[in-house]
Amino acid sequence: MGFIFRTVKKGFLWSYERTTWQWDVLCVLILVFIFLTPKSWFENSEFQRSRAAETMRQQVFIFSSDVVSAQPDRGEIERRVRGITGRADARVTNVVERRDSTGKIIGYEVDFR
User: pLDDT per residue over 17-67, tens digit each?
Assistant: First the structure.
């Protein structure tokens, strides 16, 4: 009984020297764990699914300033996005003006879902 207890204690507290076969076995087990563990064990699947779904829903269009009026409103941009995508439920989340080096508006970057 004492032999089993000492062996378990040595294994748990790892009191083996670096040059022993037990040390080599531990190193091999660690490497096997690192290289053969499935990636899915370390993923938070609920978080990954929600991020993937949000990324898939978010899309970007870049409209030239010729396509929309000089001062477009969000309603006009949403109508254009719905017309291009064919999705009646498309909703614009962000509009960013794109300017050239002289400061002239050359287009609009439109994020939508």
Answer: 888 888 898 899 999 999 999 877 777 655 555 555 555 556 776 666 665
- More reliable by pLDDT, 36 or 74: 36
Domain map (residue ranges) of the chain: 2-37, 59-112
Q: Give the number of other Cβ atoms within 10 Å of residue 68's Cβ.
A: 18
- Are 74 and 95 in contact by the 8 Å Cβ rule? The answer is yes
Question: Which parts of 33-103 are beta strand (E)?
Answer: 59-64, 92-99
Count of other CB atoms within 10 angstroms of residue 55 = 9
Strands ordered across the beta sheet of 105-112: 59-64, 105-112, 92-99
Pull the structure tokens for residue 22. 């037990």
Is the Cβ–Cβ distance between 7 and 15 less than 8 Å?
no
Residues 61/98, Cβ–Cβ less than 8 Å: no
The sign of the CA dihedral 25, 31, 36, 39 is positive
